[in-house]
Amino acid sequence: MKHAQKDRISQKGSSVQTFFITLALNKKRLYHDGRADAQLSAHVDGGVRRRAGASRLVNYPSEITIPKTMFNMTKYSYDFQRTSRNIKCERNKISFLNLNHPNTVLDFIRQIKSVLKQGENKIELDFSQVATFFPNVVAPISGIIDYYTGRGITFVVPDIQDHLRAMGLISPIVFESHKDEHHVLNKIWKFRGPDVGLLVDKCINELQKSDTFDPGVLNTLEWSLNEVMDNVIQHSLVDEGIMIGQIHPASTKIAFTVFDVGQGIFNSFKGSNYAPRTPVDAITLAMQEEVTRDKEIGQGNGLFGLHSIIVQGEGRLVITSGGALFNLFEGKIKTAGNLPVLTREQTSTTIDFQLDYSKKLSIDKALKFKGKPYDITSLRIENLENEKGVIHYKIAEQGDGTGTRMAAERIKNELLNILTEEVRPIILDFSGVTVISSSFADELIAKLLSRLGLYQFNKIFRLEGLNDSQQLILHRSVLQRLAQEYQKISTNNTL
Fold first, then answer.
1. pLDDT at residue 213 above 50?
2. CA angle 12–13–14, rounded 5-degree value
3. Within a 10 A sphere around the Cβ of 239, how many other Cβ atoms?
4. Pairing of strands 173-174, 82-83
5. How far is it, in rounded angstroms, from Cα 241 to Cα 258?
6. What tens digit of pLDDT does each residue of 159-179 get?
7. Lateral strand order in the sheet of 30-32
8. Which residue segments constitute the domains of the chain, with CATH numbers given?
9. Under DSSP, is residue 21 helix (H, G, I), strand (E, B) or coil?
């Protein structure tokens, strides 16, 4: 019988019930995992096995008996496969089974490094079995693909859903080239230092158009995003990061993930006054008040403040960095270590936080440094103010048009969120708007008037820039809305 190759077992014949395969390994070690391991190790007599995991080491004896019932072909050629619950790898092809579990990221790092060890520089990625995705999975995967692409690795993606490609999964969207876009959520952005402020502003602006929020929620989110994204620029030793955000109004959930391929939190403390023993210790240390590697760079309040916000808002905070994981959920903390990293120098960091924005959030309690509340200035509101301190809201600059009820609802939500922060005069400027639809006028002006009442509406809002036809459409929409409201009141009183 011929000796098999290290990574291939071949056997011909149809009548033999069992056969023997002699592996002349010469003290070599054979790596494999997943289903192949489960099948073969069940028939290893006297082999040494490690604990279950994505990758295991087996020292095989000189001779292994494998029942013929394992095969149903006259000619069978077996290639070792590396399979987990999240990813399957065959040679240089990596198939994703899901994009909704953080372990998919860890498995991807393992598998891609395994493929590269074989000398491959072209990797095929298969997303055909993926149905849904979570931000804390797609952001790191996009960043990892981008990292290896920059190092000469070619990724071939023959079949991928249009929405996954459009969101930037295979190649994150460079924000500087798309900074004029109004819809930034559900997209994977690559940002640099100068992009942080504008990207955060656009995220908050889209959030406040998507739903209404209690006082302080949006300001808190704005502060958190600025701090986390700035940490990438200041501490990672790389000049760019990856970010994605989502809002789910039906469940009142917000999720943001920020990723970088930098040195990691543990490495960032080297040369500082702090000496964490492990990457887990480094993460917990970084969340303490005023802990930073360099006071000249930052004050060390970013992760501390984010942690406080998550605790008060009963949200979730997951930080993965340097091969360690920190998970805060429902008041409980879980940690883990010895996770795969890109390299020792570039261990990468992922910060994922989720909030239920239906829950009350007190800024004074959440953002308290040295026992004193943090004064948050809303940059987005400041940018809308004129020289007299009045909010000057230009309808033509909102990017969604003035023809649909949905566009009007987004503007209405934003205005209501502004008033939640502080009741103040607002100019609604229609200059530059050519046409408004009746549905737009009804949803924006008529519903605002109905909600606030005539006196409060006139006290807050002043309309400017309307031409004669727009005024006519607006008057008609308002009268129809008020008539409907009056009819409801009359009917209820009669009943």
1. yes
2. 140
3. 12
4. unpaired
5. 7
6. 899 999 999 999 999 999 998
7. 30-32, 56-59, 48-49
8. 8-81 (no CATH), 214-380 (3.30.565.10), 384-494 (3.30.750)
9. strand
